[in-house]
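To: structure desk
From: M.T.
Subject: fold request, one chain
Message: Could you run this one when you get a chance? Sequence is below, nothing fancy, just the single chain.
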Amino acid sequence: MYIFDRTFEQLSVDALYQLIKLRLEVFVVEQNCPYQDLDNKDTLTTTRHLYIRDGDQLIAYARCLAPGARFDQGAAIGRVVVASQYRRRGYARVIVQEAIASCRQQWPDAPVMLSAQVYAMELYRGLGFEPTGLPYEEDDIPHQDMVLS
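Reply: Done. Structure tokens follow.
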């Protein structure tokens, strides 16, 4: 198992294809939520792409955005996803921990924030995130903004 932290420019074509494929498999197909996944934030020079691979198999992914790209007041972790065959093995926790570390390294003075799908809030609470604001619907899925305390 290897964990990668890359900019867009550092991603190989194969890695980029696998990352986008996994995001679409889960967020669009599995969750039945047609939305514009490719939002031009992947290509920002400050964006970090974190992923876990075992050989050529992509296991998990998360994206880190600089302050101002998603939240004005903090860095953002988003697009957290684990391939279906690897779920319930702790990979979500590992990829989020790596994303937190990447955000803190890249933007040490910024709070770390995320927009959690409500069903996943306990995962984030277990890593120190607390809800902020009111829950809301995004692409017909309940979400809650959270900040790392």
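Reply (cont.): The two ends are 29 Å apart (CA to CA). Let me know if you need anything else for the meeting.
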